[in-house]
Amino acid sequence: MTATDYQAPTNAYSDPNVTPPLAQAIPLGFQHVLAMFASNVTPSIIVAGAAGLAFGGPEQVYLIQMAMLFAGIATLFQTVGIGPIGARLPIMQGTSFAFVGVLAGVAATQGLGVALTACIIGGAIHFSLGSVIGKIRWLFPPLVTGLVILAIGLYLIPVAIKYAAGGAADFQMAAESFGSLKHWSVALTVVIVSLVLKFFTKGITSNAAILIGLLTGYLLAFIVGMVNFNAVGNASWVTGIQLLPYGFEFSLGAVIAVTLVSVVSAIETVGDASATAKAGAGRDATDEEIAGATYADGLGTAIAAFFGGLPNTSFSQNVGIVGMTGVMSRHVVTIGGLVLIACGLVPKIGAVIASMPLPVLGGGVIVMFGMVAAAGLNVLSEVNLNRRNMVIIAISLAVGLGLNLVPTAVQYLPGVVKTLMTSAVAPTALCAIVLNLVLPEEEAA
């Protein structure tokens, strides 16, 4: 059964509190999971690699489990809610790509303890934004948010290419085979299958195109002898959750960088909440729904970090599913959240994901990261590209990406400031916000 088999009239399921029959609700819940599953676990794999964790090892498996478990828990915060927490809309939460650049840099230089501590504090600050989010939205017009999203995608694209080519020494892979035809054959298989399914099929196969592409690449990698299942055999069936698995280590620079990205993530969640209400019910999101969505975002991030999970955010691709099916039921997405929780509690599932060779993952993230950059361009398309705004775009990207590409340019700055200035996302956001506030608007001709 596909989504197109049971599209309902908008007025039938436009109420978030109405649930379709289980024969429809359960497949729709699984479809929400399929649409976001690959994107949800990828950030944990990247940050684990940057932190120097053994590829496919038990620590990486644990981080993948936490990504699934707390994406599910954060989704329940949104759909079920606790008091003012949660939009009580069909919003699917997942591990955010926006934080990957900052967290990979912090994990590589200062360790996962510092990175996760910053996420705990950043999540708490993110949570507090729920009470003021409506008042500070003016600081983040499309010019600023589009630039930040574009910077995230551009920063991550080199990582995608490195993975597709087979990784490198700093990502726990043998550098001798880097760029081999075998690696690129697997990566390009993922890309081609994903594109074919996305644009030439409909329903679940289209929405889960990247996931199916990854599975196809995984199969090819297994056939050519690139997959090692030793970790899967050694993994248990039931997980033990650890509180502060890497300790609590405070770094002001890391906290500032994560907090800046958290603010941008909060603005994105506001957009997703608004888009969900418009797509599923044809109305604007209420102030309570926007505040509740922000509270759930921050709480999900903070709690996940206590147990080794990375920051959560709303997933825009799932908004598209709501619009496509016309099913606004929050209980459908609750089913998806419960599926993720079940996956997160079974280490063997995490071990299977961790056994995925880097070229397979690389093929998937070429598409994913490229789409992040494209999403930023889509937001910027709303902006009047006059001389003022072009200057803001030029300087913000030049400073943000330039310092990230040449970190030695600020090697004499204090550690806290250096971490902030070389994180790509943070300096891009700072430049865009300041220049947008300082430079006068151009008068219309």
TrEMBL record:
Its main location: membrane. The chain crosses the membrane at residues 33-55, 62-85, 97-127, 139-161, 181-201, 208-231, 243-267, 332-354, 360-380, 392-413, 419-439. It is a multi-pass membrane protein. One of its GO terms (molecular function) is xanthine transmembrane transporter activity. InterPro entries: NCS2, UacT-like, Xan_ur_permease. GO terms for cellular component: plasma membrane. The keyword Transmembrane helix applies. Keywords: Cell membrane, Membrane, Transmembrane, Transmembrane helix, Transport. It is found in: Cell membrane. Pfam families: Xan_ur_permease. Belongs to the nucleobase:cation symporter-2 (NCS2) (TC 2.A.40) family. PANTHER family: PURINE PERMEASE C1399.01C-RELATED (PTHR42810). This is Nucleobase:cation symporter-2, NCS2 family.
